[in-house]
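3.2 Worked example (two chains)
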Amino acid sequence: MPIPKRPKPGSLADKALLRLLRGERITHREHDRETASYRLAAAIFNLRGKGWDIHSTPEVGVTRTGRIARFVRYRIPERTLRRYHAHSDVRRWLGGTNDHPHSR
């Protein structure tokens, strides 16, 4: 089964996708720290539109000031990661090595 098309290498969507393909579960705040961009939801929307299987889980946390904050954590399900990691393109995108346990 073919995999969806990769976004432009180095783009915000590509950076998010590569983290997800490494098995990371990312939030907007984590993505913002890495990329200085508030556009993770837009990147995820575009990736999903290209066919990438990305799930979101709503979470609740408390800020430094004590305010309740609602946010979303994004991930690619394990079963889907195994399928993606079976493709040489994905392994190449991840630099030829992949620390995810299902890549072997």
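3.2.1 Second chain
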Amino acid sequence: MSEKKEKQERTIEQSLALLEEMAKRMENENVPLDEAFAIYEQGMQLLKEVNEKIDRVEKKIAELDKKQSGGSGEGGPQGGSAKPAAADDFETEDDDELPFM
């Protein structure tokens, strides 16, 4: 089996476990510098792959949420607006005072 195919078949959880093993190996004081650097390079590549997988999953979730809310893409499944309230949205007796002061 090719190395590229193995990477694609690894789950995020398996990749994270492998990263943990790599970190433990690097913590060993008896690991030569060249080997530690090679482990570091492999770990950084693996971390990049994990982040790409997570990004793809987040994108799929956002697409599903958008479909679920009728395509509006606002406010998630409920379709409501997630716009934060501005200070002007509050009514106060004195225009110079903010409601939380």
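3.3 Remarks
Confidence is low (pLDDT under 50) at residues 87-101.
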